[in-house]
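Recall from the previous lesson that a structure prediction takes nothing but the amino acid sequence as input. Here we apply that procedure to Succinate dehydrogenase iron-sulfur subunit from Roseococcus suduntuyensis. The sequence below is the only information supplied.
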Amino acid sequence: METVPKGENAQTSLKVRVWRGDAAGGEFREYAVPARENQTVLDVVTQIQREIEPDLAYRFACRVGMCGSCAMEVNGRARWTCRTHVKRVAAPGEALEIRPLANLPVIRDLATDMAPFFDKWARAGGTFQPKDAPDGAVPAEFSVVPPESKQRREADAGIECIGCGVCYASCDIVAWNPDYLGPAAMNRAWTLVNDVRDGARRERLEAVSGDAGCHSCHSTQSCTERCPKNLDPSSAIAGLKRTLFWDSLWGRLR
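The prediction returns the following tokens.
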């Protein structure tokens, strides 16, 4: 199927292939939209939805690269579509191919179900557990964490993750092992392992030590290469491996 806006020709139109369907299956459909200067992939998807296919499902919020909810796969690579300019990913005359993020269930069209991603975040112990504060009580005093300390620097290196799922969709291990926790969940675990205020260090390390955890990572570093926030989940996973080795050696794990 090809829909060309009136008055457009091949020199001013951009050819786009968009995946349409749901969890049961689907197909690519082809559209043509006006090619504009400084056009982002999200602009293209929005134009298709507003002017050609009003039932096209996709997800976005801020449009300025703060929320990460507009992540999709563009020409075979997971990206934030709001900050991906068409000129960066498609040469003149080349088609754009847009599909939902890999490794996640498809709700409809370009919208994926993020529940498995966040479920694994929880399984990896991704929730801060304050020391000396049972049953969710607030500690009596604030902990002081010197900014120059090694642990503070390790925690700060990964704290800016916003859970967009780009690393998860880019991970080869998740693709063939659906139980694998994934880079974002373990980056979060590493951040909390280095947070001296957290009281669940041992439980968190045990959560990332099994077959679905950090030792399954093959260090291909696709997560680091493609992280839109320029974080380094590969290094975080390597840090978990080192910590588990030493804690196991010294008997600090059950």
